[in-house]
Amino acid sequence: MMNAAFVAILAAFMFGLLLWGCRTLPKERWQMIAAVPVAKERDGEWRGMNLTFYGFFSATGSVFGVALAVLLLASVHVSAMVAAFLVAGMVVLCMPASRLVAAIIEKKSSTYTIAGAAFVAAILLPPVFWLAALYLPKWGFQFYVLPALAAAAIAYAFAEALGRMACMSFGCCYGKPLWAASPAMAKLFRRFNTVFRGETKKAAYASGLDKEPLIPVQALTSIVFTIAGIAGLSLFLAGSWRLAVIVPIVGTWGWRAVAENLRADHRGNTRISAYQIMSLIAMSYLVICAFLVPTTGPSPDLWIAFSQTATLPLFIFLQSLWVLLFLFYGRSQVTASVVSFHVIADRT
User: Fold this and answer.
1) What's the rounded Cα separation, in Å, for the pair 58 and 164?
2) Among 91, 119, 152, which Cα is nearest to 275's?
3) What tens digit of pLDDT does each residue of 246-295 get?
4) In 72-98, which positions are buried (b, 16+ CB within 10 angstroms) versus exposed (e)?
5) pTM above 0.85, yes or no
6) Of 7, 55, 88, 221, which one has the fewest beta carbons inside 10 Å?
7) Residue 74, in any domain of the structure
8) Residue 147 lies in domain
9) What integer is the mean pLDDT of 105-128?
10) 164 assigned to some structural domain
């Protein structure tokens, strides 16, 4: 009963949030959270640094994924703090890759690609978890590779489902305009499409697609990733470790390879993009790892997991990680602002 309730509540939360996000975030109002004055340029005016909802949802999705991975690992008797440092350490380690991969593939130094960071994490996680399982027991900590891979795959699916809301807000990772799609595709998305509004949305300044109905790639990705995450979570709680790895991996990375064909933003100069190749490599590699790792681990127990993770140190740790990620992803490198202040005369 506890497992079914947890899955149902999480599914309701995710789909409710995604429904709100798909309707709200493409609007012009939902790109910038604030403009912080950083340097005075002329009388009464300051150069501002824009803080974005892209950073808010990127940080929130990542920390939500870390928290979920920690919870799932705690359910199989892995120390919550050990799990937090391992998973969060991988997130922080892979943060530079989100900019480095974009610079290599898209030739843009101020662009982020979460796919690049996720690819690096996908390659590193199996050997890191294998080493953890090898050495942590010597220090008195339990660790199981296959449940850890399953927890990471599930957490990634949910984190990316929330992370696509960042793209809905900033107008990046956008789909093809309906007028450029096939007749069948245009008909399919005639009512369910995405329209970005605002000149500072990436779809507007990069491709001139302001107010154009687009294939809702971000929304579709969020839905597919949420379904993959729910399926993986259900399998994890049932103790089906191998399937709990394979199902979300195939669902997320397989969809990434397919969804590239629906996008209109620049993905490189080749017919098959580098991101598609990376997706297929990551999917194949992780599925092979899932078959090579022995199936070991105790039955998941969410009651134990919640009792271990409901602690102040873990909360502070996750909050600090959120702030770090928000400051990394949330400071806009491609937009600027001018901030001015004045006194309201009738209130002095």
Assistant:
1) 8
2) 119
3) 999 999 999 988 888 888 776 656 677 777 888 889 899 999 999 988 77
4) bbbbbbbbbbbbbebbbebbeebbebb
5) yes
6) 7
7) yes
8) 37-175+216-343
9) 72
10) yes
User: Which residue carries 């290599």 as its tokens?
Assistant: 104
Cα dihedral value 157, 159, 160, 162, nearest 10: 120
By C-alpha distance, which of 201, 182, 183, 205 is closest to 262? 182
Specify whether the CB–CB gap between 36 and 307 falls below 8 A. Answer: no
| Consecutive H or E run containing 130 | helix 114-135
Question: For residue 262, is it within any domain?
Answer: yes
Q: How many domains is the chain built from? A: 1
Residue 163 forms part of a structural domain: yes
Do residues 137 and 143 make contact, with C-beta atoms less than 8 angstroms apart?
yes
- Antiparallel, parallel or unpaired: β 213-214 and 194-195: antiparallel
Task: Name which of 197, 252, 188 is nearest 216 in CA terms.
Answer: 188
CA dihedral 30, 164, 126, 302 (to 10 degrees): 80
Angstrom distance (rounded) from CA 225 to CA 154:
9
Helix, strand, coil percentages (3-state) for the chain, rounded to 5, are 70, 10, 25
pLDDT in tens, 183-235: 888 888 888 899 999 899 988 888 888 889 999 999 999 999 999 999 999 99
Residue ranges of E strands in the chain: 32-42, 45-52, 194-195, 213-214, 337-340
Edge-to-edge strand list for the sheet holding 45-52: 32-42, 45-52, 337-340
